[in-house]
């Protein structure tokens, strides 16, 4: 039987500590355990259920998170806001980390950390029925201490205000990851044309440097379709890469399959008898 330490071990957090580059997929359409298992088979390190931009329920979130945990990858949840009650609930139902959107100050980051961690580090309420403990009973303070070490707390930097305060945000104790939302940051700052790429890169670099100075990992979303950008930013210290969503992968695969059929059906037809005669 697994020990407490083995039950709650978060492989994603350990890989980040070791300086590895990790990959994660956004979950927006899953309704059962299949997506988690496909993600594990694809070699992903994590998934994150997107409660900010999907209709998924907490019940579905629980299924996805527990199946991911069983499959050996880390389940995270992106929240619709910096909501202490919701942070506690998604962690209780099986997530091993939270991604908090629109973090714009050190106070925002501290609120998220406090909601995610048990006392004395935070104010998360204690539950005796946790899937990450396989619903087993352990001494409360011992379990709380071990879980606190393994929970991952990520703050999304996706606004000009968040960018301007990224140094103070990175300094918050208990925060593990600064996650740059490139799409939202671009739109909010008006950096929407190819000519603005240098300014966007400067913004990303500012967050990367702030994170490095305070020993925090850096994540990047919205740029997985640009392999050159991914190659550059991983050499600069970005470790957590959001590679796309389940919805996006299904749409991409279906579109490519249809395109292949259309291209094949549009090809000129050759009469086999004519072809054989021309080869005589």
Mind explaining what this structure looks like?
The chain is of the alpha/beta class and 280 residues long. It has a single domain (4-245), classed as TIM Barrel, CATH 3.20.20.60. It is 48% helix and 15% strand. It has 14 helices and 8 strands. It has helices at residues 4-8, 11-17, 34-41, 58-71, 84-92, 106-116, 140-150, 160-164, 166-170, 182-188, 197-213, 227-235, 246-265, 272-278; strands at residues 22-27, 46-50, 74-78, 97-100, 152-157, 177-181, 217-221, 240-245. An 8-stranded parallel beta barrel has the order 1-2-3-4-5-6-7-8, surrounded by 8 helices. Helix 4 links the parallel strand 2 and strand 3. Helix 3 packs parallel to helix 4 (58-71) and helix 5 packs parallel to helix 6 (106-116). The protein is globular, with a radius of gyration of 22 Å. The termini are far apart. The model has no long low-confidence stretch (mean pLDDT 93).
């Amino acid at each position: 039987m697994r020990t407490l330490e083995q039950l709650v071990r978060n492989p994603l957090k350990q890989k980040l500590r070791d300086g590895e580059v990790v990959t994660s997929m956004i979950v927006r359409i899953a309704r059962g355990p299949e997506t988690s298992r496909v993600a594990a088979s694809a070699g992903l390190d994590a998934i994150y259920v997107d409660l900010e931009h999907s209709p998924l329920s907490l019940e579905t979130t629980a299924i996805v998170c527990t199946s991911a945990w069983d499959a050996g990858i880390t389940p995270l949840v992106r929240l619709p806001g910096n909501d202490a009650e919701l942070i506690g609930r998604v962690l209780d139902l099986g997530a091993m980390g939270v991604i908090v959107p629109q973090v714009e100050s050190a106070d925002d980051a501290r609120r998220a950390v406090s909601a995610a961690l048990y006392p004395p580090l935070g104010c998360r309420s204690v539950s005796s029925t946790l899937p990450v403990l396989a619903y087993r009973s352990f001494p409360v303070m011992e379990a709380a201490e071990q879980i606190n070490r393994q929970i991952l707390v990520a703050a999304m930097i996706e606004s000009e205000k968040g960018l301007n305060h990224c140094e103070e945000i990175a300094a918050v104790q208990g925060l593990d990851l600064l996650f740059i939302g490139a799409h939202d940051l671009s739109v909010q700052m008006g950096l929407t044309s190819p000519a603005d790429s240098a300014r966007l890169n400067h913004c990303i670099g500012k967050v990367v440097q702030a994170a490095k100075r305070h020993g925090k990992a850096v994540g990047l979303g919205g740029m997985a379709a640009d392999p050159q950008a991914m190659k550059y930013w991983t050499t600069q210290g970005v470790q957590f890469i959001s590679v796309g969503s389940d919805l996006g992968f299904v749409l991409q695969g279906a579109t490519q399959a249809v395109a292949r059929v259309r291209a094949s059906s549009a090809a000129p037809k050759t009469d086999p008898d004519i072809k054989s005669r021309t080869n005589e």
